[in-house]
Amino acid sequence: MSTRYLALLGSINIGGNRVKMVDLKAALAQEGLQELETVAASGNVILTDPREPFLIEMQLEQILAERFGFKSCAMVRSQAEVREAVDDNPFYGVGSDKMVHSIFLSDQPQPGRFEDLFEERKAKGDERLALGDRVLFLDYVHGVSASDITGKLLERRLGVKGTARNMNSLKNILNKMGG
């Protein structure tokens, strides 16, 4: 049985990793992925597939490397998992939907890593952090550009890769997914 998934591709249309969504969609279709729909120009692809998410992630990362020439991380989540990334975010509805993010993680951080990051950040800024199931919740408060919390910093501190989406984007994606 096939499942409707959201593929969140990291580093798309950031820095030098420029990809037109029409080209991405065409490349994925040529590789056999089905019922494709892109949402915004930031690497959000809704698709239907019978395989386990990790197999889709591996294929997507390979396609990006081979077809578009850059390394990227892919996080594949079901509609229910995307909904949880919104509903379980403790900052959703409290902070600005543009500043409040859910960062989808490649794996759950090892015990102690989030707690160490949390303690380190308490003295460094106003951002608020919380950890969920393979998702980091982050309220940038004063804006992403005003923060020194970057993807690279989070990867170093947590030991896992991640790709972020704000609440506005996630609500739009959920609407496109039908829920």
Q: How would you characterize the overall build of this protein?
A:
The protein contains six helices and eight strands, in the order βαββαβαβαββαβα. The protein is α+β, with helices and mostly antiparallel strands and 179 residues long. A four-stranded antiparallel sheet has the order 2-3-1-4, with helices on both faces. A four-stranded antiparallel sheet has the order 6-7-5-8. Helix 3 (79-87) runs antiparallel to helix 6. The longest helix has 16 residues, at 53-68. It starts with a strand and ends with a helix. The model has no long low-confidence stretch (mean pLDDT 92).
Write the layout of secondary structure elements.
Layout: E1 3-9, H1 21-30, E2 34-38, E3 44-49, H2 53-68, E4 74-78, H3 79-87, E5 100-105, H4 113-122, E6 128-131, E7 135-139, H5 151-158, E8 162-166, H6 167-177
Antiparallel strand pairs: 1-3, 1-4, 2-3, 5-7, 5-8, 6-7
Shape summary: globular
Q: How is the main sheet built?
A: 4 strands, antiparallel
> What fraction, in percent, of the residue positions are helical?
25-40%
Query: How many β strands by DSSP?
Result: 8
Average pLDDT over all residues: 92
Strand order of the largest sheet: 2-3-1-4
SSE order, as H and E?
EHEEHEHEHEEHEH
Percentage of residues in strands: 15-25%
Low-pLDDT stretches: none
